[in-house]
UniProtKB/TrEMBL annotation:
This is Uncharacterized protein.
Amino acid sequence: MDPALLGGVVAALVVAGGTAGAFGWGRSRRRTRDREAAAALERLEQEAGTALVRTDERVRLAGDELDFAVAELGEAEAAGLSAAVREARERLREAFHLHQLLHDHVPDTDEQRRDWFARIVALCRAADEAVAEQVRAVAARRADVRRAPSAVEHVRRELERVRGDVAKARATLGRLAERYTDEALLPVADNPTQAERLLEFAGRSADLATARLGEQRVAEADGAARAAADTVRRADGLLRAVEEFEVEALRAESALGAMIAESRAELATARALPAHQRAGAVDAAVAALEEALADLPRPGERADPVASLTRVRRANTALDDAVADQLERVQRERHARAQLGPALDDAERQIATARSVVDDYRAPVGPDARTRLAEAEGELARARGEQDPERALATARRAATLAAEAATTARRDIARAGQRYPGGTWGDPRGPRGGGSGALGAVLGGMVLGGILEDLGDIGDMFG
């Protein structure tokens, strides 16, 4: 056989074999994917079925719990569980409807089956969560109600205990009134009377709870017992506040003693300042603190330690701030004095430079540069006469800045004039250079800009 023909046949066979192999491999991959998708769909179907059964049972049990709750607690107490059961049953109805669609005679696509199975799982999960939360809440409430008889007994014991503390609180107030002013005792002076009123209400609530227990109205008995317990706690807090007042007052007295010692040290520091540094805020703060200390009660007098501590602390803080501000100002002034000499020297140098530029070139320098130079000279004079070192420093720096701006503006004016009179060399700070024509151009430029030629009459024709 012709070798060329043989080669063609072999190539064709290879291509055909490769095509067949690729086709077979692709078909195998599709079969694998189909099997995996079918397995996943089967698992989802099993999950949906399990969820339906579990949720249906939980909702049924929640319905039973609802019946017990209504009987024991009343419809109002069971309203949350009732709404949750109603919502869960609606979701279950939708889930069962989808399950029925999945098993009727109408064929469904795999995509529909996946969506509906997933929806069933989601509906069941939502129904489970809704009823589970409310069932727990109702169970806790029923447990409270079952404890109502013991709760009523406990609140009665607490009621009697707190009633016994009223007289003790009144005795404590009487003792405190010998040491502290009426204003100091004002926060707790009426506490025993208020506590008695609260305890009276608590007693009526406890009686109502006992009556409802006898009528087998346990939920109402529990509510009344709760109200009584809360009221007894409030009364107890009022009476304890009377006892705690004495402790707080003693703490305030101790803090006041320390504050007095600190204030005297602060006064000594403030008085040690030079008179010119004390003038103003420091003297005013010293007077206020001295007045606060002078107004403190003498030994044996009734006191208001909390108010006294507050006043002395406030005056002490004000003096601290005033002294600190003054010391900071002294430090700033010391720093300013150290910088003032160099700042004045710098301003003088800047002004001398600007004055040199203006005086050397005169006519080309416009009014802006001259105005800034005049301002700089005025600021320097003010800086030399200023007594406040901080203001003097700021003024000297402003003078240097104005002088530098004057020199820059003057040089800009000279440069522009040099462009209009190319024969001149005004922009060169070293002065005129070159031959007589250059010097003549500079002179002419200055004379023209200064308006001199107009005053010389026909002499201007000499330069025509």
